[in-house]
Amino acid sequence: VFSFEPHSDIPDVLSWNALACEPDEHLAGKIQYYREGIQEDQLATLLYTSGTTGLPKGVMLSHKNIVSNVKSVLAIVPVGPESVAVSFLPVSHILERMVCFTYQAAGTAIWFADSVERLPRILQEVRPHFISAVPRVLERMYERLLEERNRSGKLKKKILDWAIALGERFPYSGGQAMPLDYRLKRWLADVLVFRQWRKRMGGRIRYIAVGAAALQPRLGRLFSAARIDVREGYGLTETSPVIAFNRFEPGGVHFGTVGIPAPGVEVRISAETDEEGNGEVEVRGPNVTRGYLNLPEESAERFTPDGWFKTGDLGRFEFKRFLRITGRKSEVFKTTTGKFVAPAFVEQQLVRSPFISQAMAIGLNRPYVAALIVPEFQQLEYWCRENKVHWTAPQYMILNPKVQKLFRQELDQLNETRLGSVEKVREFQLLHEPWTPENGLLTPTLKLRREVILKAFAAEVEKLFE
Question: What domain range includes position 303?
Fold first, then answer.
């Protein structure tokens, strides 16, 4: 325990000054003694998976696992002694823990936020250059921009709509050049809208690394158009965690993918694939766990005979080297038509709608795909006011015929433009309460607890297939 007071009178508590001082010869020798006593293959930490499909398992990560991933990330993220970062994700998860180790190795100043709720104020106080986040944080930043839009007069509302639509069409992806006319429009949007948006995030924020869940590509484009480069990555607790990451340099990003394999990490797609080339993602490298605590059989099952770790995720390579994750192998279901559907992919398309906050696709042993949907009620309320639909409590609004018609139109458009013939959502049920870790419908890392949700809404599900 340390105190930030210059001198601590509390027993067994060191002051910050005592901690920050240069070590004397005795202390330096003690540090070296401890350092030499640690072997790279020794257990560094034990982390339990969130357990979406079963009981949590203790993932064993060695010092070598974590350090190798830190070295990989240092080579591909623009942080250094001149950078300032804010950390607000839980360090009990390997993502933020590894990110903080990377900041320390780069000499980056880290400010720790006491709560996500205070993040907007903290960003203005600290004015960071770099943060790591989950998609929900970016969605909330976007929602605040929409809130401003909905409070504005007609002219400002039109300007904000134009700037947001322009940002969501941000053309820079991979080797695609940015047309001159888009550059000019982007400059104007920056002067009128984006500059003020950045100021509300501190004014200096330049980079955001996103992981833990799928990011809507339109948000990645919008933030990047606003000169905040958003890059999505992919990883697992078992891989310390980064497997792949979109790069910040030119040609290193394709929105909608999770990027290029990290340096030193090998990725392949299993030989068994579907007609679109989707197969299980397999990984090999110094970042891969040795297995699960006291579970030798389960640990062995996660490796192929030639030593590759089976992630359990489905994906394919696009643009030669960019990995796209299309679903979870254990979640794929077959309809009575005999066709397989990856629900995660369907859900990613559904939440592209500004009116859909959460969605879960269902259809195991059913004739078609249906969905449970939690609306984005704030956006829905503004739509109701603009369209003169009387607004009441959410549990009543989901039954309103005009609201039902709106969501049918949204689904029809997504079915037509985003989903294949087997994936099209035929029926839907709106729900008035969001899914959260607190009510047990999401894991601590915000993943769907599918079996729990199906049980909680069994009656609603049955009505979808009557």
Answer: 43-328
Asked whether the beta carbons of 444 and 450 are under 8 A apart, the reply is: no
Q: How far apart are alpha carbons 187 and 177 in whole angstroms?
A: 16
Q: Omega before 241 cis (within 30°)?
A: yes
Q: Does 337 lie in the same domain as 302? A: no
Residue of 346, 278, 335, 279 lying closest to 308 (CA atoms): 279
Encode burial over 377-406: b for 16+ CB neighbours within 10 A, e otherwise. bebbbbbbeeeebeeeebeebbebeebeeb
Q: Do residues 60 and 31 share a domain? A: no
**Amino acid letter for position 210:** V
The SS3 assignment for 132 reads: strand
The CATH number for 346's domain is 3.30.300.30
Output the CA–CA distances (angstroms, integers) from residue 268 to 271, 272, 278, 336, in the order listed: 9, 12, 11, 31
* Count of structural domains within the chain: 3
CA distance 339 to 333: 8
Reported as a pLDDT band with limits 50, 70 and 90, residue 97 is very high
CATH number where 106 lies: 3.40.50.12780
**Sign, Cα dihedral of 115, 117, 118, 121:** positive
The answer to whether 196 and 122 have CB atoms below 8 angstroms apart is no
Pairing mode, if any, of strands 43-48 and 58-62? Answer: antiparallel
Comparing C-alpha atoms, which of 141, 139, 137, 155 is closest to residue 192? Answer: 155
85 plus 226 within the same structural domain: yes
Highest mean pLDDT: which range of 153-157, 175-179, 206-210: 206-210
Q: Please say whether the dihedral angle defined by the alpha carbons of residues 6, 10, 14 and 16, taken in this order, is positive or negative.
A: negative
Judgement on whether residues 318 and 184 belong to the same structural domain of the protein: yes
pLDDT in tens, 26-80: 989 998 999 899 999 999 999 998 655 567 899 999 999 999 999 999 999 999 9
Strands (E), 216-265: 229-235, 242-245, 260-261
Q: What's the CA dihedral at 255, 258, 262, 266 to 10 degrees?
A: -130
Q: Which of 304, 328, 352 is the last residue of a domain?
A: 328
How far is Cα 102 from Cα 108, in angstroms, rounded to an integer? Answer: 8
CA pair distance 110, 440, nearest whole angstrom: 32
String of b and e for 344-362 (b: at least 16 CB within 10 Å)?
A: bbbbbbbbbbbbbbbbbbb
- The CB-side HSE value for 34 (13 A sphere, CA atoms) comes to 5
Global pTM exceeds 0.90: no
Residues 307 and 362 grouped into a single domain: no
- Residue count of the chain, please give it: 466
